[in-house]
Hints:
- The structure holds 2 protein chains of 2 kinds.
- By secondary structure, chain A is an alpha+beta fold.
- Helix content of chain A is 40%, strand content 22%.
- Chain A has one domain: Glutaredoxin (3-Layer(aba) Sandwich).
- In chain A, the strands form 4 sheets. In chain A, strands 7-6-5-10-11 form a 5-stranded mixed sheet. Chain A has a two-stranded antiparallel ribbon with strand order 1-2.
- In chain A, strand 5 (73-79), helix 2 and strand 6 (107-113) form a beta-alpha-beta unit.
- Chain A starts with a helix and ends with a helix.
- In chain B, helix 2 crosses helix 6, helix 5 (76-85) crosses helix 7 and helix 6 packs across helix 7 (133-148).
- Chain B has a two-stranded antiparallel ribbon with strand order 1-2.
- Chain B starts with a helix and ends with a helix.
- The longest helix of chain B has 24 residues, at 2-25.
- Chain B is globular, with a radius of gyration of 18 Å.
- The A-B interface holds A 81-82, 84-86, 88-89, 91-92, 95, 127, 129-132 and B 50-51, 53, 59-63, 98, 100-101, 103.
Amino acid sequence: MKERIEIIRSKGLLIIIAAIALLSCSQKIEKPLPVFGEREVINGDTLFHTIAPFEFINQDSAIVNNATFKGKIYIADFFFTSCRTICPIMKTQMLRVYDSLKNDPEVLILSHTIDPEYDTVALLKDFAQRLGVSSNKWHFVTGVQDSIYKIAQTSYFATAMEDNSEPDGFIHSGAFLLIDKEQRIRGKYDGTVEAEVNLLIQDVRKLEREYAGKKSAQ
Amino acid sequence: MKLALLLGITLCFLLVACGSKDAANNSQSSTKFTQYYIQGERLYLQHCSNCHQKNGKGLGLVYPPLDSSDYMDQNLPAVICLIKNGSQGEITVNGKIYNQKMPGVPNLTPLEIAEISTYIYNTWSHKAGLIDVKQTEQILVACTKEMKE
């Protein structure tokens, strides 16, 4: 009788230990961030939506294209310097993002102007300097208006267009988009809401851990 | 240590007592002040805080600060005018040069401009007291003249 109780006890202990082990394991394996957009399966391989090829000019008159972001995580948004509605808030929030990762070589920021006629390279340069940000970390780009609108709409799923009924003459979304090293969209955040931007800052770290995990598994 | 505490408490009492005496003396004007201030805060959050921020700190060298600004301290009439008409060109605040277009809000009434001014001139580091509608109207007349030249 006594022995039986012993056995039951030790079994119970085992189960508890196993449960704890399981729990601690499942906590370590983080749920990866979702991948946005349509996907196609070809021969068992899944093809995800990626950012289409692009080429713009940044505040230093340097060409910025997909190669600029090769092997980097980046955060993209759409704005214009003369905007008085949501852009000032977006820029305040993006500056927080910048501060959180300015010493992190893996992450860049890409802000597209949707008013290239007014926002010349010189003006973007002045704007970046006034924000006090470094141009190899935070690219402010301009280009052909149609290409900017098109990439906003079809690659980043962000709205950007001229609309004369709007107070500033444009409508555009205040979204921040998190793009991974494979140029896939991994997160979309409202750049005017502090709590969402906090989440973005956390998700950048999460994505970095995902890549760190892959490296060590290889 | 105890003495300091006692002193602090007495000071607090004195302050509170004096404050309430003050308020009792001109309760009428303080109600007016409160009304202006509350409306002013609402209007500030609606028209101004996306650039100058809720905390009045502005943004880098793009949007100048309001929380402490020698420009505001020295240029009340100009500030009242720029709320209505906007501002363009270089402006120096606390020794730093800003140069970005600020759009005005032309459809604000003189009362609303007085309310916003009362709010920004009595928040953060400022304690200028009530800026009332009569004063504001007079300033506004003068600045529209200047703008038209």
